Amino acid sequence: MPEGARDAATATVLVELDVPRGVGTITLNRPEALNALTVPMKQELLAAFRRVEREKAIRAVLLTGAGRAFCAGQDLRERLEPDAEPLGVEVRERYNPIVRAMRSLPKPIVGAINGVAAGAGASLAMACDIRVASDAASFALAFGRVGLVPDSGATWFLPRLVGATRAAELALLNDPVSAADALRIGLVGRVVPAADLATEARAVAERLAAGAPRAIALTKRALNAAWDHDLEAALEYEAHLQDLAGRTKDHAEGMAAFMEKRAPRFNGD
Ligand code: T3D
């Protein structure tokens, strides 16, 4: 039974923990507004990432949206309320902590992009480690259409994922990108029929959850760092992380399983 960070009837973010399979599913849950992000929703989303981090049995995370959208970014109606925070405050205090929590989570996040991902919703998709998109999904930076600057990591992720030329087009022109084009330019790793998205994305998460958790966490850390490293620094960081991985029981288990021609059973030690 999905469980919200608040009362289940009002929760705008649902968290479902499948302990036997090691997968935590976080669902953005304001389908009537295409999962546009409000203040309570951002607080619940941050709490959801903290929750899956604390649960040792959860080894991989799925992030998806309820209804026909993944996430339409900031709730624009909320921004018109008289007590809305200044934009810089909102971004620093509510969006940036979510993106940091996602990138520093020592567990892989699979984005199951079920529909449109716009504005900060596109940023959330880009902050996932792996993106599996439905063929009904689309991406739009959208910020420029409301006179804003791409945020929540969009200017950092985008050129690294799709290259400088395409990043400039997407960020400056704000045109929607279909799932097929997102696959072609490397914004997502795979596209599947809409009806298969939940199964396919879950299969990826379950594969990750069956892997060696420490090695996966260190690999995520290495990939994060590599974006800012030169080759020398990357080589040295890999050696450092390999030292750590080499001392885990899971490494010994992987070696034993190979020698014994059986599947490894990793337990995160
Ligand atoms: O704090 C800060 O503001 C700083 C941070 C900013 C980060 C950002 O994310 S800025 C960018 C914000 N997002 C957008 O500008 C996207 C706005 N939405 C759209 O452009 C379109 O809705 C979509 C392209 C995403 C989808 O279009 P479509 O035709 O499939 O659906 P629709 O009919 O436009 O939307 C359906 C409903 O969702 C509709 O409500 P209604 O009229 O049926 O009651 C629409 O108003 C609502 N909705 C969609 N996006 C938002 C939204 N409501 C509030 N905020 C939204 N972002």
SSE inventory with pairings:
Elements: E1 3-4, E2 13-18, E3 23-28, H1 39-54, E4 60-65, E5 69-71, H2 76-79, H3 87-104, E6 109-113, E7 116-118, H4 120-127, E8 130-134, E9 138-140, H5 154-162, H6 164-173, E10 177-178, H7 179-185, E11 190-192, H8 197-209, H9 213-226, H10 231-246, H11 249-259
Parallel strand pairs: 3-4, 4-6, 5-7, 6-8, 7-9, 8-11
Antiparallel strand pairs: 1-2, 2-3, 9-10
Bound molecules: ligand T3D.
Averaged pLDDT:
96
The proportion of residues in beta strands is 15-25%
Q: Tell me the radius of gyration.
A: 19 Å
Strand order across the largest sheet? 1-2-3-4-6-8-11
- SSE succession: EEEHEEHHEEHEEHHEHEHHHH
Number of helices: 11
Quaternary arrangement of the chains shown?
single chain
Helix content: 40-55%
Give the overall silhouette: globular
End-to-end Cα distance? 29 Å
Total beta strand runs: 11
Cofactors, ions and other ligands in the entry:
ligand T3D
Please characterize this protein's 3D structure:
The protein has helices at residues 39-54, 76-79, 87-104, 120-127, 154-162, 164-173, 179-185, 197-209, 213-226, 231-246, 249-259; strands spanning 3-4, 13-18, 23-28, 60-65, 69-71, 109-113, 116-118, 130-134, 138-140, 177-178, 190-192. By secondary structure, the chain is of the alpha/beta class. The strands form 2 sheets. It has a 7-stranded mixed beta sheet, sandwiched between helices. The protein is globular. The two termini are 29 Å apart. The structure holds ligand T3D. Ligand T3D binds at residues 33-34, 36, 72-77, 79, 87, 90-91, 116, 118-120, 140, 142-143, 145-146, 148, 151. The site of ligand T3D has 24 residues, from helix 2, helix 3 and strand 7.
